[in-house]
Design a protein that fits this description.
With 116 residues, the chain is mostly beta strands. It has strands at 2-6, 9-11, 17-24, 32-38, 45-50, 57-59, 67-72, 77-82, 91-98, 104-106, 110-114. A hairpin with a 5-residue loop joins strand 9 (91-98) and strand 10 (104-106).
């Protein structure tokens, strides 16, 4: 099983960044896909989730209206489009897959830095 994130970057406040998570080794379409983030000295927090089928999504209040999560079951990918980035969005972003029988997989994380 692998979850590989891509899209590491340094952007200025107000900028945009797109993170992708490519999955392999499990039946992607049956899994809830989520993005978490963890900033230095802070607890890991759930940023966005998308359920199988893609019709239901959930977002952290502070990112609503700025971030969009999506999935492509044909390509086994989950994407997080991040717009209007703020300095407070700086963190390591991690992809998560949660599925049947409480299976739970994590990517290695990718650094997002928002700074002037």
């Amino acid at each position: 099983v692998q979850l590989v994130e891509s899209g590491v970057g340094l952007v200025q406040p107000g900028g945009s960044l797109r993170l992708s998570c490519t999955a392999s080794g499990f039946t992607f379409r049956y899994y809830d896909m989520s993005w978490y983030r963890q900033a230095p000295g802070k607890e890991r927090e759930l940023v966005a989730s998308i359920l199988p089928g893609g019709e239901y999504t959930e977002y952290l209040d502070s990112v609503k209206g700025r971030f969009t999560i999506s999935r492509n079951d044909a390509e086994n990918t989950a994407t997080l489009q991040m717009n209007l980035l703020k300095v407070d969005d700086t963190a390591v972003y991690l992809c998560n897959a949660r599925g049947p029988r409480n299976t739970d997989y994590w990517g290695q994380g990718t650094q997002v830095t928002v700074s002037l």
